[in-house]
Amino acid sequence: MFENKTEQEAREELLKSVGAYCRKYKLNQKPFQAGDRITYAARVYDEREMENLVDSALEFWLTTGKYADRFEKDFSEFLGVNYCSLVNSGSSANLLAFMALTSPLLKEKRVLPGDEVITVAAGFPTTVAPIIQYGAVPVFVDVTIPQYNLDIKMLDAALSDKTKAVFAAHTLGNPFDLKAVKEFCDRNGLWLIEDNCDALGSKYCLDGETKFTGTVGDIGTSSFYPPHHMTMGEGGAVYTNNALLHKIVNSLRDWGRDCVCPSGRDNICGHRFDRQYGELPFGYDHKYVYSHFGYNLKATDMQAAVGCAQLEKFPGFIEKRRNNWQKLREGLESLEDKLILPEAEMNSQPSWFGFLITVKPEAGITREELVREMEGHGIQTRNLFAGNLIKHPCFDEMRASGKGYRVVGELENTNRIMNDTFWIGVYPGMTDEMIDYMVKVIKEIMQ
Ligand SMILES: Cc1ncc(COP(=O)(O)O)c(C=O)c1O
C-alpha cells in the first residue's frame, strides 16, 4: 500500500484520509428541528482533533510525550502563567493541587491533618474530596444567589487558628469575588486554590489588571472531560506561578519522584549518580529517589494531541458561550417574576459553562415539574452537581458523628440550590435555533 513512500509521506496520506473521513461522517450534522434532543454540552471539534489523535497513535509513544509538552507550553502561554502540568482529569488536578499544599517542602506553611480549609458544599464533590481524604477539615460557608459562589461575608466567621487555605470553584464559569477572597487569604497567610474546572477562559479584573481565573490564587485547576470548555476525553491541568509548587505537583503526579527528567529521558540534569538523598547510599540513581508519597496521574499523548487542536479553537468557544448565555438571559427576562436568572459577578467576564435557573416559590411549579417537562421536550438539564454535598451518603458517617467538617452559619442558599436550582447548556455547538426553542418551551411551561 505504501510502496516507495517514506514514513512521513505515508503518514501524511493517512492523515489526509482521516480528515476526509471526519468531514464526511462526523461533521455533516443535520439542521436542528424542534423536538430534537438539546444536550447541556457536547464536544465541538473538526478534522484537526482527529488528525492529531491519529498522528499521535501512529507515533505510538502512547504515554506523555511531544504533544503533552506542547500542550503544557501553549496552555500556560494562553493563561499567562509560568507553569502547567497536564494530568488525567480535573479531579486529579484538584487532588494534586491540594496535596501539593501538604508537602514537607513547604515547611511551616504546609497543610497538616486536622488543619482547616474553607470551601462550599454547593458544587462538585472532588473539590472537597482531597481535603477529607487527607484528614484535613473542610469548613463550609454558604453561597450567594444568583451568582452561586462562595459568600465572602462568611469568610471572617469561618476563620480559625487552624485555617490554612481556601479551595473553591468558580461556579459554572462565574468567577467568585477574587478580590475579596485573595485579600482575605493574603491578610491571613492562607493558600488559595481556584478550582477552575468549570470556568476556563473566564476573566476577572483585579486592581485594574485583567487576569484569567485560575491564575490569581496559588494554584488553578482545569478539567478537559467532554462537557467542559475544551476537551481531550479525559484530562486536566494544574497551573501556578510558583516554581516550588510546580515542582511538588509534578513530583506527586509522577509517582512521588524527586527527579524532574521527563519519562523515558535520562540524566537531563547531569546529576543522576552523584548526590546524597535521605539515608540512601551516595550516588543512588536519582530516577528512583522519592521525595513524596505520590501517584501516577499523567495523561497520555493521545489526550494531549486532541487538547492541542482544541486549544487553537478555544478563544472562539469562549465567545460563543458568552453569546449563547446572553441570548438565553434576554430570552427568559420576562420570566423573572417566577425564575431567578443568573448574574455575572462584579468585575468579571465569565466564560460560561451553563445557565443556572432557580425556581421561585411563587412560580406555581416545582423544579422537578419544570425539569421533567423540559426533558420531555428534549431539553437536557442538570442540577448544580451535589446541591448540598453534606446531605449525600458519602457524608453519612461524618454527619452522624458531627466530626471531620465544620459548617459556618446556615447553608440556606446551598439548600435552596439543592431543592430549586437547575441548569441548561450554552456550549459552543448550540445554535440560535436551539436557544430560541429552549426559550419558547420554558415560556410555554411557565405560562
Ligand atoms: C467544579 C469541578 N471540579 C472538578 C471537576 C472534576 O473534573 P473531572 O470530571 O475531569 O474529574 C468537575 C467536573 O465536572 C467540576 O465541575
TrEMBL record:
Per its UniProt entry, which superkingdom is the organism in? Bacteria
Q: What is this protein called?
A: Lipopolysaccharide biosynthesis protein RfbH
The similarity comment for this entry is: Belongs to the DegT/DnrJ/EryC1 family.
- Naturally occurring in which organism (per UniProt): Christensenella tenuis
Q: Which InterPro entries match?
A: DegT/StrS_aminotransferase, PyrdxlP-dep_Trfase, PyrdxlP-dep_Trfase_major, PyrdxlP-dep_Trfase_small
- Establish whether keyword Lipoprotein is in the entry: no
The UniProt keywords, alphabetically, are: Pyridoxal phosphate
